[in-house]
Amino acid sequence: MSSLSELPPDGGIKAERLLLRELAHRIDDELASAIDLVSKAANGCDAREAAQTLASLQDRLESHARLHHALQMPEFSTTVDLAAYLRQLCRSISRASLEGEGIALSLLLHPLKLSSERCWMLGMIVFELITSAARHRSRGGAGAIHLEMWVTAASIACCITDSGSSGESWYRGEARDIVEVLAARLQGAVDICVGPDGGRIVVSVPR
Question: Going from the N-terminus, what domains does the chain have, and what CATH number goes with each?
Fold first, then answer.
């Protein structure tokens, strides 16, 4: 693991990646430490209710740790199945952020081999859209979010549909900025569709 003092003085993409990886390692260490403390407290606790609460907290922390791991920038350039990557990522998002709010996340994905960096950028887009939709639900309660991916000879499209809010209500602010920067890096486009049953956002990128 590279330390911050070892970053190249000229900055650039290499320095940016080293910073992101250093930050990721530190967050991993902090989460592991918190999980260990909660686990020890739960094992040494006599009160049943307190032990159950601590066990639940430990499970939640572990879900966040898995989600953080899935969102990390790939360290090596390789080929990844996009569908498998998104499925793992969405499982982590659901356990960490959605299940406790009663929000169901469904998927319709198709196998497709891509570079690990392109998979990571699409994964970041999906993460931002799903978590933003969950935060801005019109009724703030249970509902459903659907991720669908389709592939043509020329393009890849990821579509996020939220039955509980309009696309305009959750595609704003920091989430919109991140999605549009990543889509631009992928030479893609973002399309918003708003209807009476909710919102839909489609991110299309060249294959």
Answer: 4-71 (no CATH), 79-206 (3.30.565.10)
